[in-house]
Design a protein that fits this description.
about 130 residues; 1 helix; mainly beta
Length: about 130
């Protein structure tokens, strides 16, 4: 099983969805270092959302803080012209959360599920003891 990582940063750019002849689709989002970590040479990190997950990026805007859960995927390709292997690494986006200024998620928290009431007299008749 692949390890899952998290990165929090600021949205720099959301690229258009790419569709290939095979029908495969992908869409990239680029994040820079998080607020308060300004540096002379900021990181610009691209994450790729694939297939049906590309729609996760539809309403994401430049400048928003975001937390991405991702996996690191690697593959090798043998170049038929040179016969040499080439290696590729992708940061595959699995989930995206837009964050408020205080760092909390904008995703709604699910309502708690209340336990069933076990004091119903009809239920007591079905007890095996």
């Amino acid at each position: 099983m692949a390890a899952i990582y998290e990165y929090t940063g600021v949205v720099e750019k959301v690229l258009e969805t790419q569709t290939f002849a095979s029908g495969f689709t992908k869409r990239d989002i680029v994040l820079t270092d998080d607020v308060g970590t300004e540096t002379k040479w900021p990181n610009h990190i691209a994450f790729t959302f694939k297939k049906d997950a590309t729609n996760v990026l539809d309403n994401v805007q430049k400048g928003q803080r975001a937390k991405i859960r991702f996996a690191i995927d690697g593959r090798v390709w043998n170049d038929p012209k040179s016969g040499k292997d080439r290696y590729f690494t992708d940061l595959t986006g699995l989930k995206l959360e837009i964050l408020r200024e205080d760092g909390t998620s904008t995703e709604p928290v699910p309502a708690p599920v209340e336990p069933e009431d076990l004091t119903d007299p009809d239920d007591l008749d079905d007890m095996p003891f």
